[in-house]
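in:
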C-alpha cells in the first residue's frame, strides 16, 4: 500500500488531494513538525531533508509535494495528466508557478500572521506578502478568462496544485472579491472529492 508521510494541514495536504483524485488506497502517517518527528533517524532514512511530505510507493520514494503529485498523476491519474506533451508542459508550468511563485508570499503571510509568536512577527513582511499574492491571483484571474480549467477542457493535476495554494490564500484572508474567474473556478475545484475529503 502507498504510504504518505506528512499531514493534511501542511504541504502533505496537496498530496492527499492527489491520492484521493487517483482513487488510491493509502496510509497517512501524520508527522508532527512541532514534536520533531521529521528529524527522527527512521524518517531521515526516507527523506534526509527532514521535510514533509514523503511518498513511499513500493520501492519508489518521492520527496517534495509537487514532485509527488506529478508522479501520482503520471502513474495513476488517468485524466489528471494530459497525453499531449504540449498540454503536459502547461501542467508543469502551472504546478511550478503554484509552488515557486504563489506559495512564497503566502508563506510570508502565514508565518507573520499565524505561525510565529506574536513578538517575532513582521507586519510589513506579512502585508507585502499579501499584496504580492493579490497581484498573482489577479494574473490567475486573467488567465482563467473564458476557461473552465487551467489546461485543456478538463480538470487536471494543474488545477489541483494551483487550487490548493488558492484555498490557502483564501484561508489567510487574501481578498478575492474582484476575481470572478478565480471564484468560479475555485467553486468547481473545491467540489472535487479530494477537496471535500481534505476539508472534512
Amino acid at each position: 500500500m502507498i504510504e504518505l508521510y506528512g499531514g493534511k494541514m501542511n504541504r502533505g495536504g496537496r498530496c492527499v488531494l492527489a491520492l484521493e483524485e487517483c482513487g488510491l488506497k493509502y496510509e497517512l502517517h501524520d508527522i508532527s513538525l512541532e514534536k520533531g518527528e521529521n528529524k527522527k533517524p527512521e524518517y531521515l532514512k526516507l527523506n534526509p531533508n527532514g521535510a514533509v511530505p514523503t511518498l513511499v510507493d513500493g520501492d519508489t520514494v518521492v520527496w517534495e509535494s509537487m514532485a509527488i503529485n506529478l508522479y501520482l498523476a503520471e502513474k495513476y491519474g488517468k485524466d489528471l495528466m494530459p497525453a499531449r506533451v504540449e498540454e503536459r508542459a502547461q501542467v508543469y508550468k502551472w504546478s511550478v508557478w503554484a509552488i515557486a511563485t504563489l506559495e512564497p508570499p503566502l508563506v510570508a503571510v502565514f508565518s507573520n500572521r499565524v505561525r510565529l509568536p506574536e513578538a517575532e512577527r513582521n507586519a510589513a513582511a506579512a502585508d507585502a506578502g499579501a499584496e504580492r499574492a493579490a497581484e498573482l491571483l489577479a494574473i490567475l484571474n486573467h488567465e482563467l478568462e473564458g476557461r473552465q480549467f487551467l489546461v485543456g477542457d478538463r480538470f487536471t493535476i494543474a488545477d489541483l496544485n494551483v487550487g490548493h495554494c488558492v484555498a490557502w490564500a483564501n484561508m489567510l484572508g487574501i481578498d478575492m472579491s474582484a476575481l470572478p474567474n478565480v471564484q468560479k473556478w475555485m467553486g468547481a475545484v473545491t467540489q472535487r472529492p479530494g477537496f471535500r475529503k481534505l476539508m472534512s
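note: The two ends are 23 Å apart (CA to CA).
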